[in-house]
């Protein structure tokens, strides 16, 4: 049996007809880790989560969560995990407190114990003042925080968060991040986080896997992944566009060309920030009129582009989206 709190998948495959949504992935996540699963819509993120939470059976391969097999020991897996899915349905006519009591009943938690835990969780997620209001009056961020509390009520060893901040405003997103860090720090909960947001994965996850078209294309710590990209990029926006050729010639000695946004000229800058002054001098000596100069350190978006050939946030699947397929089991 694997360590309680861990997640292990070996050669995991899930097909929907001719579409292979998950194409033989391997995962090994230790207890107490925050693991980020990064990828665009249709990449296989949610399908993987549904397998690991026993909502879908794998076509082949195996997976163990909290020490239990997701197929042969599905009941044990369900009792050991908390799940906050992106499309979770919360009854809008019930109050937050009533939903927590219902969740406690489903997990056979005695009333006094459930009331005590509910109060603590409501305080943890900042919903004490709204506990007796109908969920229909909650904002999107409040609903996500309530969903987090519902997933934690039975003190799971592993918590699955499927794109928990999609569609939220920046303040609500930061609030969710704070709660995830807090529960991991104070409870030692293993967190499996799927997201489309690079910043979210970078801030929360100790380790990250990037999935594209059902396959893991990169894995490691955020710093390890970004270090593989190589040198930072210096990006120059010109005051006079007709000087572009002159500017490109001046920048050519500093590094290889890189993709530039909105017409900017960009090159990989070996040596990083200490060479920016040299870039400024070279452009000045070439009489190039510059509007802005920016130094961009490697990001997870750069990692994704290097691994897949395209940008992450806002990218569209290059194959039919298998992730939302409804299939007969």
Please explain how this structure is put together.
The protein is an alpha/beta fold. The chain folds into two domains: 7-221, Rossmann fold; 231-297, 2-Layer Sandwich (Alpha-Beta Plaits), CATH 3.30.70. 34% of the residues lie in helices and 24% in strands. The protein is built from eleven helices and 14 strands. It has a six-stranded mixed sheet, with helices on both faces. Strand 12 (257-258) and strand 13 form a beta hairpin. Helix 3 packs across helix 4 (111-124) and helix 8 (222-229) crosses helix 11. It is elongated.
Low-confidence sequence ranges: 314-329
Number of strands: 14
Elements, N to C (H/E): EEEHEEHEHHHEHEHEEHEHEEHEH
Average pLDDT: 85
CATH superfamily of the largest domain: P-loop containing nucleotide triphosphate hydrolases
Q: Which range does the strand content fall in? A: 15-25%
Instruction: State Rg.
Output: 23 Å
Helix content: 25-40%
| Order of the strands making up the biggest sheet | 6-7-8-3-9-10
- Strand pairing plus helix content: what structural class? alpha/beta
Give the total of domains. Answer: 2
Largest sheet, strands/sense/barrel: 6 strands, mixed
State the separation between the terminal residues, measured CA to CA. Answer: 27 Å
